[in-house]
Amino acid sequence: MSGLPGWLGRLGARLTRLGKELEERRARAEAEAEAGGPLGEPAGEPSPSPSPAPVSAAGSEPEGGAAGAPLPKAGPDRVPAPPSYAPAVMARPDPAAAVPWGVRVAAEAGWRLLVLAGTLWVLMRVISSVRLVALAFVAGLLITALLQPTVARLKRLGVPRGLATAITAISGFVIMGLVGWFVVWQVMENLDTLSARVRDGIEELKHWALDSPFHVTEQQINQIAKNLSDTIGTNTEEITSAGLQGVTVMVEVITGILLAMFSTLFLLYDGRRIWEWTLKLVPVQARPGVAGAGPRAWATLTAYVRGTVMVALIDAIFIGLGLYFLDVPLAVPLAVFIFLFAFIPLVGAVFSGALAVVVALVTQGVFTALMVLVVVLAVQQIEGHVLQPFILGRAVRVHPLGVVIAVASGGLIAGIGGAVVAVPLVAVTNTVVGYLRAHSQEGALRMQPRPRGATALPREGAE
To answer: Which residues fall in a compositionally biased region of kind Basic and acidic residues (predicted)?
Structure first.
């Protein structure tokens, strides 16, 4: 215990000496900072004495920059600056910024188009798998567009909705059934006469071919007839299977007609509630635009169906009268076929007119066939340049290129039914897209801040 006081005294003296050294270092560091001394040196440490600057490779100037300037001291937390002769290295840009703007825009649009194409492909596959149901519903929608104005007129006269729907639907279906029965009856009544005239026409064509400048011999004609007979005989199984397939098609047609009738009945009776229920499936943000586009799409579809029916009826009447006065057999059934094929724009008129010309050629000869061709072309020209612009108007006008592409695409996807519904679908889509574009622009203008000052419009009632 005798050495403890001495040890404590020495410890106190050492702590006092360390405190003085720390005060001196702090004062020295503050003085260097005020005088602009070297930055980044630890506080309290004396500045290193200037050492001889290393000579550069040229032997003229030190590496540190200006002659005699000391280099900063390299510590554990400081990276030494590169020498002055080192080349400047640019920082690497962001990879997204290195891609050209046009390529980025194309990529953004490309993957969105791929998503849309995939969605459309899946939708087309789904529709193809339930093609019968889809076509029956669309047919019911078209018939509803044709009959709905009658229901509305009866309701305005005070007839209850259910009774008005029943009267309109039953009347429409009875009229269409009578027309179909009349066509079948006319064909069956004139089938024997038509067969005899076809045989006579074939004989006349045979004699015309023998006397024509094409140098066709009777042996060649007989050989062609024999080849046709052999082909029919060897393909009996295919013809039988085609007949069985025809029976299946007839069953599908009857099923589709029944589905279309039920769809028409319920759409006529409860169409508004069905539309309101459909709107609930649309997101809330898009619901106002869709709610406004729906009535306009329905007006376009109604105008298209009614206008097409009127144009087809006029075509059928005038071409049928021409066939009747030219004494062509089956004039009435041919007129009905012309009326039905008129619902397929462009293509239907060509096929129905060609059918009438072929019947006239086989039964009445070349001159009558030429006269029928003149009548068909004249009526179609009047239809294309007068009737359609006047009756259909601009509301449902579709460019001819769009009509051709729509009819071809609809025919490839769903046959004749797809070709019939393709053009009204395009017309309705055109109306909906135009309205949604205008609605979005109006919403964007509404969201913009109102002008102030001299550009602001005066309020109503303000002087």
So the answer is: 22-31
Q: What is the pLDDT of residues 403-448, one digit of tens each?
A: 778 878 877 777 777 777 888 888 888 888 888 888 787 776 776 6
Contact 168, 154 (CB under 8 A): yes
220 and 209 Cβ atoms separated by less than 8 Å: no
Q: Are the C-beta atoms of residues 391 and 311 closer than 8 Å to each other?
A: yes
Separation of alpha carbons 18 and 446, rounded Å: 77
* Cβ-Cβ contacts under 8 Å for 218 (sequence gap 6 or more): 210
Cα angle for residues 392, 395, 397 (degrees, 5° grid): 65
pLDDT at 421: 81
Among 337, 296, 323, 312, residue whose Cα is nearest residue 439 = 296
The C-alpha atoms of residue 317 and residue 335 are separated, in whole angstroms, by 7
Measured torsion, CA atoms of residues 130, 136, 138, 143, in degrees rounded to the nearest 10: 180
Q: Cα torsion for 208, 214, 218, 222, to the nearest 10°?
A: -100
pTM: predicted TM-score of the whole model, two decimal places = 0.61
Tokens standing for 167? 């009267």
Q: What's the number of CA atoms in the CB half-sphere (13 Å) around residue 65? A: 6
pLDDT at 341 over 70: yes
CB 254 within 8 A of CB 136: no
pLDDT for residue 397:
67
What does the alpha-carbon distance between residue 463 and residue 455 come to, in Å, rounded to a whole number?
Answer: 16
Beta bridge partner(s), residue 62:
55
Domain borders along the chain are 282-444
Q: Which of 226-230, 233-237, 371-375, 440-444 has the lowest mean pLDDT?
A: 233-237
Question: Using CA atoms, how far apart are residues 384 and 451, in angstroms rounded to an integer?
Answer: 49
| Closest by Cα among 376, 364, 324 to 194 | 364
